[in-house]
Each structure stands twice: as C-alpha cells, then as structure tokens.
Amino acid sequence: MRFLVRRLTVLVAALLAVSFLVFLIPYLTPGDPTRKILRGRVNAMDIDPAQLESLRAQYGLDRPVLVQYADWLATAVRGDFGYSYTSQAAVMPQIGAAAMVTLVLAVGALGLAIAVALPSGILAAMRRGGPVDTAITTVTQAFVAVPEYWLAPLLILVFAVKFGALPSAGWAGPAWMILPCVTLALRPISYFTQITRASMAEVLDSPYIVGARARGLGYYRTILRHGIRNALIPVVTLLSVWLGGLLGGSVVVEVIFGIPGMGRLVFNAVHNGDIPMIQASMVTIVTITVLLATVTDVLYTVINPTVRGSHVGS
C-alpha cells in the first residue's frame, strides 16, 4: 500500500506539472494566441483589431495567466477541454475516437514485435556465439536504421501499388492495419530481441538454473519453468515505454497511411494552431504514459518477488 500511495503521489504531481506546461503552450510559442485562433478561421492577411479584442474576451485570454490556468484545470479534470478553434466541435469526443484508433495500432504493432522478438531473443541466447545468434543479432540491429518515413512508402509501393495485396491508406478493417503495424513494429522488434537475448543469457548463467540442471531437470524444461519468466522482467518494463511512445510518436505513420489517430490529430492541430486540441492531446498522451508506467511498476513487483520485498521495506 505504501508503494502504491507513493506511485499515485508521483503520478498526480507529474500530471499537475505537465498540465501547467501544456497550458503554457500558446504563451511559449511565437505569436499572439488570439491571432492564431482567428487565422484558423479566416484566410485574410489583415485582421480587424476589434475582432481580436472580442475573441480575446470570448476565450478569457485577457485575464492573468494563473487565473486562466486555474479555470482551465478545473474544467480539464472533468474531461472538458473546450471546443476546437477550427472545427468548433467539442475536443474530447475527437480525442477519444482518435486515441482508440492509435491504441489499437500501437497494441497491434507491439503484439507483432513481441511475437517475433521473444522467440528470436530466446533462441539467440540459447545459441550464443553461433551462426544463429549472429544472424538474429545482425538482422534485428539493422532494423534500428530503417526510418518509418522511408519504410512506409516502400511498403505501400510494393504491397499496395505493385501487387495490390493490401490497402495503401485508411482505417476500415484488419487488412488496413497490416502495413502500418509492420512499419511501427520494426524498431521495437530490434530492441525487444536484444533485451530478451541479454536477459535470457544472464538467466541461463545464473546459479539457480545451473542448480536445476544439476538436479536432473531437462534443459528445455528448465528454460520453460525458470528461465523465461525471469527473462521477461526487463521486457515488461520496455513494453510499457514503447507503448507510451507509440501513442504519441506515431505521427509519421498515421499521416502517411491516412489513419485517423492521435498522431494525425496532433499534426493537424499543430498545423492549424488549434490550441485546445493540442493541449487535450498532450494531456491525454502523458496521462496514458504515466498510468502505463505505474501499472508496469506494479506488474514488476508481481513478476519479481525480490523487488516486492524492497518496496515493502522502504
């Protein structure tokens, strides 16, 4: 309970700090926030000063910054981030719909990464120093050097344009997930494979594995019963980091494939200077990321009992 209370306290403090920084976005960027709002609605180069003053009063931008923040936070904790400057529609329904799309995309990409990386990393650790280990390590390390903005168009040209096997853009069913998931999964495959290999190699050299083998337990049975669970501990931590990163970092993939997710929503909001949409998106992404980190800490104590004891003692 003390561990959970500490984690929740850190979570609330982090969200408050992030919320204040997010609120300051229009004041930290060049230009008048009111002028940005008006330019998102009209294309005229010359803006009437009377329109600016009226709009500034309408959105409360003529009040002190701390007063604005207090009012903004009071509504934000209720899930109300106001209305989009460009569409004039409520922000949170758009955020919710886009977040679900990105969550499905991120989970699909990480599921693919785990399905490839875990057996590859375990096999590489079991064949350390051999040709299988060398091949897996070389190929997966090369994945890090492949950028999404290069891989995505290549996959579209090959599988959508040339062969017509998969759709090139959109979000209308499982077939539309394949190319973007493969694009997003490539880097996690590399990192998950390497961390699994390193963790599994350390586990295989540990005294309790050697002791289990000495007591007559078979090699593969030892790995299944004792090795994999302990080797998964760093993978679980890395998984939450990547999931949080994909939720906010899939901009390129979503824009290229025309996916209506958080990345594309943030991209359009930044392009249009839609401040409420930017603020709500950032708060949503950070909240999900911090919650994932908290859940990961709890899962870490479940998987590794030695950590649980250290938490209780502190």
TrEMBL record:
GO terms for biological process: transmembrane transport. GO terms for cellular component: plasma membrane. The keyword Lipid metabolism does not apply. PROSITE patterns: ABC_TM1. The keyword Protein biosynthesis does not apply. It is a multi-pass membrane protein. InterPro entries: BPD_transp_1_N, MetI-like, MetI-like_sf. Residues 99-296 form the ABC transmembrane type-1 domain. PANTHER family: DIPEPTIDE TRANSPORT SYSTEM PERMEASE PROTEIN DPPB-RELATED. This is Peptide/nickel transport system permease protein.
